[in-house]
Amino acid sequence: MAQDIRVKICGLTRPGDVDAAVAAGAGYVGFVFFQKSPRNVDVATARALALRVPPGVAKVALVVDAEDQRLREIVEAVPLDMLQLHGAESSERVREVKARFGLPVMKALGISEAEDLDRAARYAGAADQLLLDAKPPKGATRPGGNAVSFDWDLLRGRDLPLPWMLAGGLTPDNVARAVSRSGARQIDLSSGVESSPGKKDAAKIAALFKALRA
Ligand SMILES: O=C(O)c1ccccc1N[C@@H]1O[C@H](COP(=O)(O)O)[C@@H](O)[C@H]1O
After folding, report:
1. Is the CB of 34 within 6 Å of ligand 1?
2. What radius of gyration do the chain's Cα atoms show?
3. DSSP 6-19
4. Domain 6-213 = CATH 3.20.20.70
5. According to a count of CB atoms within 10 Å of the terminal CB, is the N or C end of the chain lower?
6. What is the secondary structure of 66-131 as a DSSP string?
7. What is the ipTM, given to two decimal places?
8. Ligand 1 mean position to 34 CA, how many Å?
9. Which residues are part of the catalytic machinery?
10. What's the whole-model pTM score?
11. Substitution site in 6, 9, 10 for ligand 1 pocket (most atoms within 8 Å of beta carbon)
12. Counting atoms of ligand 1 from 1, which one is nearest the CA of 108?
């Protein structure tokens, strides 16, 4: 299964964690630019991490309702392949960001019920792909990275207008079930492969790929 599923490991903060993700077979690595996150990195750190990533592995910057000035600071400092917009960005804002910064955009959508997937249509022709994550729990201080899953069966048989990536509470223990129930071809993990918030665990990353191969 692993060679078919493209894996993103998000929220990398340390060189060894980047190396572990790449060595295990990640197709994307993500850097979080959101101050309330324990995975937040500054641009100098992100640049150093990004420079370790070999060609063929996509480097993604995750931002939340970021203004142009902040995006410019990130894009000018860090070699990137994609922007992940994880806030309440409208389809117009997605188009604007793509046109201004010249990078493909993955738009995150919070999902808890089937109707939430209808919002995917708004982003057709605007975003390059979608990231489907659980809605944050009440009182959460960040819109993602909360180790919460949504009902993967909501995706069964759904024909979405854009390529999509499954996220939210995925772990080495549940990933095989999540992939088989949702039909995901791409997945994104952050807290499920950590030893503590912001610190990835190489053994958990290896276990994730083992689970996908099983
Ligand atoms: O990881 C964060 O801290 C974060 C902060 C703000 C927005 C999104 C964030 N993470 C993304 O959330 C999903 C799910 O994460 P998890 O596997 O449930 O921990 C994933 O896309 C992360 O990239």
Report:
1. yes
2. 16
3. EEEE----SHHHHH
4. yes
5. C
6. --HHHHHHHHHHS--SEEEE-S---HHHHHHHHHHH---EEEEEEESSGGGGGGGGGGTTT-SEEE
7. 0.97
8. 10
9. 10, 133
10. 0.96
11. 10
12. 21
> Residue ranges per domain, the chain?
6-213
How do residues 84-135 score in pLDDT, each as one tens digit? 999 999 999 999 999 999 999 999 999 999 999 999 999 999 999 999 999 9
Task: Give distance in angstroms: CA of 54 to centre of ligand 1.
Answer: 23
Tens of pLDDT, residues 23-81: 999 999 999 999 999 999 999 999 999 999 999 999 999 999 999 999 999 999 999 99
What is the spatial distance between Cα 155 and Cα 177, in angstroms, rounded to a whole number? 13
pLDDT band for 214, please (50, 70, 90 cuts).
confident
Does ligand 1 have an atom closer than 6 angstroms to the CB of 39?
yes
Is residue 187 within 6 Å of ligand 1 at its C-beta? no
